[in-house]
Amino acid sequence: MTIIAHISDTHFDGSERAMSRSRRAMDYLRGCDVDVIVVTGDLTDHGDVEEYDQVRSELVADVPVLLLPGNHDDRAAYRRVLLGGEGAAPINQLHRVGGVVFALCDSTIPGQHGGLLAPETLTWLQGVLADAEEPVFICLHHHPIRVNNPLLDSIRLQNPDDLAAVVSASPMAAAVLCGHAHAAAAGTFAGVPLIMAPGIFSTTRLPWTTTDELAWSNTFDRDDIPGLVFHVLENGQLTSHFRTVPA
Ligand SMILES: [Fe+2]
Ligand SMILES: [Fe+2]
């Protein structure tokens, strides 16, 4: 049995608020018996080196913590602080933990909030799936399906069909994990489960839950309790548990 803790959108911005919400999640997870922690992007709010210093010191545990970039991140600063390298190419990473392969695909477009999987990233993912002998969790920041909030859907992944073609061609694809939507939500994509982690930093409001007209200024509920997902893979069966983080 493999237990994957999935959090997203920590948005470290130097504030006490962002720090305390992430600490609440990580303190909780460090007391849980999980095999790996996946953070599906928007690690920082502005992509500053100082914010990555916080990521490096806060998003740590005794188990591997896998970190994806999001649209609020910056590839060069991410590389400099977290990987010890230089450059602005997509940050695609392969990890093997607990009998599972994690393909972390960089879906960011520098300077934009929407997402795109570049041809080199899709080719890389195709290779990972072709070589895999264990179930592969395909992780990216941007949601490839609608989340029913028009604002968030305007900045979703722009080329979902390209991803679907790669995923559906492989029997090793177990699930797609993403963030960005700040929404605990699930669907299907290219024949596999698609699961979105709620945002640590805030939660997207849904149009039918309010009479307010949603705009960028009010679409995120900053008072909602931070949450996370536990994905359990046992004998090829995936079950995902959505939980709020205890105070
Ligand atoms: Fe975010
Ligand atoms: Fe995002």
UniProtKB/TrEMBL annotation:
Alphabetical UniProt keywords: Hydrolase, Iron, Metal-binding
SUPFAM superfamilies: Metallo-dependent phosphatases (SSF56300)
Pfam families linked to this entry: Metallophos
Residues in Calcineurin-like phosphoesterase domain copies: 4-183
InterPro entries: Calcineurin-like_PHP, CNP_phosphodiesterase-III, Metallo-depent_PP-like
Transmembrane segments: none
Family per similarity comment: Belongs to the cyclic nucleotide phosphodiesterase class-III family.
Descriptive protein name: Metallophosphoesterase
